[in-house]
Amino acid sequence: MTSVDEQARHGGRIRDAARTQAEILDVATQEFARAGYDGARVDEIAARTRTTKRMIYYYFGGKEQLFTAVLERAYGVIREAEQQLDVEHLDPVAAIRRLAEVTFDHHEAHPDFIRLVSIENIHGAEHIAASEKLGKIGSPALDVIRRILAAGQESGLFTADVDAVDLHAMISSFCFFRVANRHTFGALFGRDLVDPAQREHYRTMLGDMVIAYLTAERAAD
Amino acid sequence: MTSVDEQARHGGRIRDAARTQAEILDVATQEFARAGYDGARVDEIAARTRTTKRMIYYYFGGKEQLFTAVLERAYGVIREAEQQLDVEHLDPVAAIRRLAEVTFDHHEAHPDFIRLVSIENIHGAEHIAASEKLGKIGSPALDVIRRILAAGQESGLFTADVDAVDLHAMISSFCFFRVANRHTFGALFGRDLVDPAQREHYRTMLGDMVIAYLTAERAAD
DNA sequence: TGACTAACGTACTAGTTCGTACATTAGCTG
DNA sequence: CAGCTAATGTACGAACTAGTACGTTAGTCA
């Protein structure tokens, strides 16, 4: 009997632990991002999977751990993207601008991730705290920023008093707000921050802002 | 019989519709901010009030409308703060910096409001859309920004191509992120963005950033 | 002062939702 | 190929939760 026949015999499904887990994570990511932690329904996640609720508890233990697993995978994706960052060959100004653009693009491309982070903040980052993986991730982007900043400061292009974590916060703020607060901002000010027609405008604005901050003359502290 | 005796007779409580509604709104604000919309419990809100759940439905109609009422009041507070903004007598640079500082201070002073806005964004701003009040609020801050920008651009201090709504978004991004993402940022990067010892640092950083952006030379579009 | 209504309280229900006990089977391994 | 275990499915329950039916009382006004 062929493998295809096997599948047919069991309704098209074969046992595949990794695949089942991945599918649960996919659907769970969508559901948590859609409705928040408490708004998400375990039954709904199960229903949209080719498996059953039983499997969620079998593999993840419970709703809390499932959400933690979703977060771990989501953060893993951005970490990978950051690791592929290759800006060392650029001059400091171009490198920072490129970094800002990559951050901008990643936020725009992953609104579900942004929502998950918002949700996790509502819950005081307790799942990150409970995760062994997420605690000691470290950020590849941060290392990149440190190197660019050092180069820029040494060459005198950048003002000397800027910290890498602060700069990361500054860039993230803009990218995050634009996606996360899209709805309230749109409702209150009548402007869609994620309007494709405005994409280049805001992308440039972010770069201009960061570079202006880094190259501006400031009163010494 | 004195008023005090009256109160004593009924367990210290007098009938006062306005007061009951205000108390429900106070507690509901805390509860929604604490746990999110779906995480919030109507029973919990009622329990922490001097009245009962029955009154929540009597005055507000339901959980959804209660949350909308909470949002309406929260936005009212920030609108009032913005209306008291008095920076017209300052030069454009000082005026923008003052505006940024006021925004910064307000975000820091009202973390519950920030959480409510995050929550409302998770739900696609549907309560704002459903609210008659919130639709046509308009932002006093936006008018102020428009005037300062016009003055700054006319005097040649500021670059000409900056829009008021965009600048508002820029300032809000930083202030919002610092409070809203405090927990995940702290857990991942080991830095508390709301640490009082760092307050002046970030407050200055925001002003520097905005002024640098507004006064920088840029390639024409 | 009597009666009318807004304001309030109690007790309950219908529906939901996380989680689990129990039963079954696919597929590997010796 | 026998048997063992990881993987899976079904059916159910206990607890929670938004919302309500019904009853009571305070305060005002004719």
From TrEMBL, chains A, B:
One of its GO terms (biological process) is regulation of DNA-templated transcription. Residues 41-60 bind DNA. InterPro entries: Homeodomain-like_sf, HTH-type_TetR-like_transc_reg, HTH_TetR, NicS_C, Tet_transcr_reg_TetR-rel_C_sf. Transmembrane segments: none annotated. It comes from the Bacteria. Residues 18-78 form the HTH tetR-type domain. One of its GO terms (molecular function) is DNA binding. This is TetR family transcriptional regulator. The lineage of its organism: Bacteria, Bacillati, Actinomycetota, Actinomycetes, Kitasatosporales.
